[in-house]
Amino acid sequence: MAAPIVPRGAPGPSQFAVSTAMQKENPMLHVDDVDALYEEFVRRGALIKQAPADKPHGMREFSVTTPDGHRLMIGQDLASRAGS
Q: Looking at the domain covering 17-82, what would its CATH class be?
């Protein structure tokens, strides 16, 4: 069964789409503005594991730990970031 997709483009940095190619251990959320969402997570006291960084595979990513201990990767396609 494919992962649910949340429409992108809605106002606010909290809107995201779940990758249909999620890894079991580290799900990846694709967002429109990774840096804005990171700042929102920091303001809300999220457990940040890795600050945003550009990766060789063409994504800008950061990771957080959920309250139940799971790691969640959040990223933005660098090509879409350059076009904004």
A: alpha beta
